[in-house]
Amino acid sequence: MGAISLRNVDKVYGRGAKANKVVHGVNAEIADGEFIVIVGPSGCGKSTLLRMVAGLEEITVGEIDIGGRVVNGLEPAERDIAMVFQNYALYPHMSVYDNMAYGLKIAKVPKAEIEARVQKAAKILELTVFLGRTPRQLSGGQRQRVAMGRAIVRQPQVFLFDEPLSNLDAKLRAATRLEILKLHRELGVTSLFVTHDQVEAMTLAQRMIVMNAGRIEQIGSPEEVYSRPASTFVGGFIGSPPMNLMEGVADGSRFALGGAASPAAATTLALPAAAPRAGALKLGVRPEHVELTAAGGWPLQVEMIEMLGAERLIHGHLGGFAFTLRLDATLQPPRPGDTVELSVPAQHLHWFDATTNLRV
User: Fold this and answer.
1) CATH, residue 257
2) What is the H or E stretch that residue 288 is in?
3) Tell me, what's the pLDDT at 258?
4) Which of 149, 2, 130 lies closest to 67 in space, CA to CA?
5) Which residues are registered as beta bridge partners of 161?
6) pTM
7) Comparing C-alpha atoms, which of 217, 232, 358 is closest to residue 286?
């Protein structure tokens, strides 16, 4: 059983006036066999949280339970976990076989069982023909597969991945993501995967933990996090390009951009459906949900166009706010300096509190 429970977990470095709290009261329940991705910007505490699960960092406050056992006081080797690092951490003088088998030899696993486990892992990861080579004879992607193989042979309750794809180029990252998905489908081991890359998070996760400044902003499936972001941070972080966010004052089916200070000078948007409440709000719209319309829409002043093959990104300003829309490359694009009219279906409007930045 590899279920993980995080209960009110804090991490503080230093003491007194120099204390720096980097993880704030994290609570999460991870089911046995689940693949969870912890995602967030650099410095948000995601790797620190993973290292606390691994036992590489002490917990300041709270409890971590793995497989029904509180592990706060246990050493990493006693937690029945295996970790895959960003930098592979392979022994350069050892063969692929010996790198994968080394931990088992230290644990005094019988030789026949070591052979069986290494051969099985090598077959799963398509490393059989490389078992006699040393790491310097392998590509980056192959080295990362060796690091995963070393974790597989341990047969742990939990796999922990700390940004394992960061050192790979874009093509190798995509290929290795597929390897990790196939691996999880075959082994079904509880997995925690840390990344700052939202594409990795969206493609790998069964559920995501989105972190910001040491706190959990949202936990949910990729579909839930994308379609119903819990805060402006989640809306702006998940999605590429990020969600357009505009402040203003709502009054029924009208939204005056900018606020109540100068309503006469504000650009007022006609909404396809009434806002959830009147008053100060933030409106979020994803670039892929914006459509060009003939007249009577939201006026976008076009500044720049990015050609991305099958699509174009149209960048401009709407009532003083930066705004981006995604346009199919088969459509005739506007030109920089043009003003175009936009419309957004009612189901794709996202509303947030102007003070708390939480979803309304």
Assistant:
1) 2.40.50.140
2) none
3) 84
4) 2
5) 84, 193
6) 0.89
7) 232
